[in-house]
Design brief:
- The protein contains four helices and no strands.
- The termini are far apart.
Length: 121
Amino acid sequence: MAVNYGSKRIVVGAHYGLRDWLAQRVTAALMAAFTLIVLAHLIFSKGPIGYDLWAGIFTSQWMKALTFVIIIALLYHVWVGMRDIWMDYIKPVGIRLTLQVLSIIWLVGCAGWSIQVLWRV
């Protein structure tokens, strides 16, 4: 008589589960806190909200550094989400790999552009 221990379920994937779930929550919390900081700065500022006020928020080095951290958090948040979507819904490996590479190229381009904009202010 053969004894069957465990399930016959085939487990696939790279086992990112808990780490990616936690990364999504932490990056979302960072982005929410940053949004509240910027909103508080806008609410408690005097005068009309225009380019000068927006540029003034991002002129200090600590705000540029904080914004840079949030940009990195946003990019990682997006990457985890897009990678999971591609892995869950696109079954042909070649198409999935192509979409993942295009996503990486797009996110690196967005990172470069956002950093360029941030340090021009």
